[in-house]
């Protein structure tokens, strides 16, 4: 991040920290800038531009998933308010499992898991749809007992926040 900041500052870009964009400046001929607010001073800012790139990420801020607090969907809202049509939004509806004690939704490590019900019985159907149905009513327990010792070491190294 520091390298990116230095690089773009060297190129003459002015960075507005803690200053969310709130609205695109748009009229019948297109978008010509944006306005927002500096959260520290309370002052509004306005930038006029020949073109505007929205790069405000996705929309997942209520998911409680790791790293998603900043994904407010602001860019989508601003675009729609400026007259844009959104397409393909139905394809962005992906859910991952998370452990009870963490907000980490990376699911690769379950590849090496045996899944159990609360009473200790093994859950045979391990596809996401079947597991999701159970999770709607009961917790699922996972034991990462299919991993070799090498993989176990790699797991903790690659994804420490999973454990
Ligand atoms: C936990 C986690 C792990 C991931 N791991 C990987 C991985 O290993 N490999 C991989 O390829 N991808 C990974 N991803 C996905 C990757 O992080 C995203 O696809 C990528 O960051 C999206 O980039 P982006 O620039 O579109 O948006 P973001 O990186 O989300 O950036 C959007 C920025 O816009 C800012 N913003 C929001 N609203 C406003 C506003 N109104 N005004 C101004 N700024 C605003 C936000 O604060 C944020 O800084 C991971 C994502 C998560 C959540």
Automatic annotation (TrEMBL):
It comes from the Bacteria. One of its GO terms (cellular component) is plasma membrane. PANTHER family: SUCCINATE DEHYDROGENASE 2 FLAVOPROTEIN SUBUNIT, SUCCINATE DEHYDROGENASE [UBIQUINONE] FLAVOPROTEIN SUBUNIT, MITOCHONDRIAL. Residues 4-91 form the FAD-dependent oxidoreductase 2 FAD-binding domain. GO terms for molecular function: electron transfer activity; flavin adenine dinucleotide binding; steroid dehydrogenase activity, acting on the CH-CH group of donors; succinate dehydrogenase activity. GO terms for biological process: anaerobic respiration. This is Pyridine nucleotide-disulfide oxidoreductase. Pfam families: FAD_binding_2.
């Amino acid at each position: 991040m520091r390298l990116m900041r230095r690089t773009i500052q060297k190129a003459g870009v002015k960075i507005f920290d803690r200053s969310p964009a709130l609205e695109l400046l748009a009229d019948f001929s297109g978008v010509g800038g944006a306005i927002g607010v500096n959260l520290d001073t309370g002052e509004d800012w306005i930038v006029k531009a020949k073109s505007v790139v929205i790069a405000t990420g996705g929309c997942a801020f209520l998911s409680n998933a790791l790293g998603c607090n900043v994904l407010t969907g602001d860019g989508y809202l601003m675009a729609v308010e400026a007259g844009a049509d959104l397409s393909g939004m139905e394809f962005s509806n992906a859910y991952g499992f998370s452990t009870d004690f963490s907000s980490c939704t990376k699911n690769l490590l379950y590849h090496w898991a045996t899944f159990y019900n609360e009473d200790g019985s093994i859950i045979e159907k391990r596809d996401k749809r079947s597991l999701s149905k159970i999770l709607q009513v009961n917790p699922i327990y996972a034991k990462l007992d299919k991993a070799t010792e090498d993989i176990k070491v790699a797991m903790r190294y690659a994804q420490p926040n999973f454990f």
